[in-house]
Amino acid sequence: MPKLDFDIITLGHGSGGVLTNKLLDSGVFDLLTNDILEERHDGAIINMNEKIAFSTDSFLVSPIFFPGGNIGELAVNGTVNDLAMCGAVPKYLSLSFILEEGLKMTEFWEVLVAIKFACENANVKVVTGDTKVVEKGKGDKIFINTSGIGNVHPKANIGKTRIQIGDKIIVSGNIATHGMAIMSIREGLEFESTIQSDTTNLNHTIINLIEQFGNDIHLLTDPTRGGIATVLKEIALTSDFGVDIFQRDLPMDDQVASACELLGIDPLYVANEGLFLSFVDASIANSFLEVLQNDKNGKNAKIIGSVVDTHPNQVILESSIGGKRVVSMLPGEQLPRIC
């Protein structure tokens, strides 16, 4: 067993930040290392006569019903989107439940119906699965695991190693919406709000962009746990370049901004579930943005920054008033049980 910096698992180990990376680096990636796993992307691209993308994820959001969705559609959309970030056309899902004794059947049925509609919207099929039940008090109503597989689009060439100096970074819509939708109904943090989660499938949007811009799309990734800040920092740390982003260009709903300010939460670190970041060649950035803004999932898309050859391994945010600060990973958990 490797020497670890901690004796027990804490909520912070699920944050997507420093503790998560320490846990993965000292355990999972060391013990299970292989060239595919070391890509550390949202899904794995596997050569099996043709390129296949494969991804898996677990969902334990609390509460299981939230404004704009529930844990069922979140599970489908999350795995579908991870495959889409690989440039793949999602085809099949596995679906596994861990149910807590005492869960109301009406609630389970509502989750199942949401799964059905999410699959239809994404044009994927659940083809295998499993169900387990734990004693009352040993779970939290329902946990879901989904795995997905799909064919990589022939025009897709997605990977961190393809990022180049000068690439533009585009976010597909308003940030921090999902996380603040959850926080708006958490016990002790309730406030007047109509914020709804942005959970949705992005695969149709992504495939349309790949068909039009193909090789000029260098990387796609969805900023779920840990938000935009964590994703950009992870990318910068594993490269020889830096990233500049600009606060004035970050799209955010006014209610979300107010909620973040009220709760003292930095929106850069808040989870998103219907959002993606694109690293694209500067020559096609404006055309890419125009196409994306004409899509229902990209109407609020913005160019938020670029890849630079200064300050390697660092993400620098320029504030609305011109100041600059280094964007770091969260040392612990900001919003537990968010997805």
Automatic annotation (TrEMBL):
BP GO annotations: protein maturation
UniProt-listed InterPro entries: HypE (IPR011854), PurM-like_C_dom (IPR010918), PurM-like_C_sf (IPR036676), PurM-like_N (IPR016188), PurM-like_N_sf (IPR036921)
Domain (PurM-like N-terminal): residue spans on this chain: 41-152
Source species, domain of life: Bacteria
Gene3D superfamilies referenced in this protein's UniProt entry, alphabetically: PurM-like C-terminal domain (3.90.650.10), PurM-like, N-terminal domain (3.30.1330.10)
Domain PurM-like C-terminal: 165-315
Family: Belongs to the HypE family.
Name the UniProt record assigns to this protein: Hydrogenase expression/formation protein HypE
Organism of derivation: Echinicola strongylocentroti
Source species taxonomy: Bacteria, Pseudomonadati, Bacteroidota, Cytophagia, Cytophagales
